[in-house]
């Protein structure tokens, strides 16, 4: 009877944990779990940003399919934006509607492998392979000689950093927001581990399946990057919050030290949380424009490079 009691209690605990996990993601931002149809995306974007061309493309290889959205004029520098896990291109929806950003960049926003229209539910744990496919998207899409900028948040930041390491000649500017970059510097909850995960997986959306598969591989995948930081030599912008309870600010502090061959600006927020991309959009857009100015030589590196601590929203 005692064993039955505890097994029932454990099952109820896990079911409540799974429900809480879904509710947390749903409450943080409705965009994070959405994977709208192409028609819905076209209709919503065209109604707001009529002057900016909008297209959805697919990259096909024998192994994978990648869906990505392109918004803006092809004469401008390119900004690829990589979402976190779970997520989709819709994680950057407010940025896609930001005309101040669209006047400065052509935005390329993929669904990372396993999310949205990039074969939802089909996990790819290798950061090297994820970076490879994002690089293929850039090679296919960027035809002008303008600079290419790369931005990633959370585990999208992991992919962005790996891409900048493996293809340094392809990137002219890098921005990492709340990024997971080093082993043992993030929170993993008990429910993520077997056998607990197997008991609740069937209750959860496929995007969470992929996110958890990635989560359990983070240590191994991030460890493979540790001797590659020297390969990044382009201007870098890192933003992180001291109050990030999911991915420690030590990721940003350690990356700042490791980027010895690159000019780096580090912005540390005294408040905030993990979801900086949604809560500090003005701060991010303003600093993206500064990063562009540095790359184009319109802002001197020695003025731009610094550590900034902010106590409230900029």
Task: Describe, in short, the structure shown.
It contains twelve helices and nine strands.
Strand order of the largest sheet: 1-2-4-3-5-6-7-8-9
Sketch the major β-sheet: 9 strands, mixed
CA(first)-CA(last) distance: 58 Å
Provide the low-confidence segments as ranges: 1-6, 23-30
Strand proportion, as a percent range, falls in 15-25%
Structural class: alpha/beta
The helix-strand sequence is: HHEEEHHEHEHEHHEHEHHHE
Based on Cα principal axes, name the global outline.
globular
Mean pLDDT: 87
Helix share bin: 40-55%
Please, could you describe this protein's structure?
β1 and β2 (65-71) form a beta hairpin. The chain is globular, with a radius of gyration of 20 Å. With 314 residues, the chain is an alpha/beta fold. The protein has helices spanning 2-28, 38-48, 93-96, 99-102, 127-141, 155-166, 196-200, 206-223, 250-258, 276-279, 281-295, 301-304, and strands spanning 54-60, 65-71, 78-82, 106-110, 148-153, 173-177, 236-241, 264-269, 307-310.
